[in-house]
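Human: For the file, kindly provide a plain-text protein record giving the amino acid sequence and the C-alpha cells, at your earliest convenience.
Assistant:
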Amino acid sequence: MLIGYPLDKEPNLTIRKNDLDLYEAVTTSNGPAMTWSMFCVGHLELGSVDLAAKMFNRQLLQSTQPFQVVAMSSVADTLTRDIRRDVSLMAAEGVE
C-alpha cells in the first residue's frame, strides 16, 4: 500500500493494484481509519473513483462526535473502552 513511500519511487499501476488488493483482503473491518484513507488515495491514483469513494466513506465511520474527529480505532472500540473505564470508576467510588 505504501510501497512507493519508503523507496521514494512510484511502482507501476499493476503493482499498486496488486498491493491494494492484497492489503484490502487482509485488513479487518475495524482496522485503523488511516488504512481506509490510504486505500482511498491508492484507488484515486488508479482512477478507481467508485472504490475510492467507498474507502473514503469507510474511514468516516470511525469519526467521533461532536467534531467528526477521525479516530485510529473504531467508534465501537472507543465506546467499549469508555464504558469499561466509567464502570471501573463507578465501582471504585462505590456506585452501584
About this structure: Residues 4-92 form one domain. The chain has one domain: 4-92.
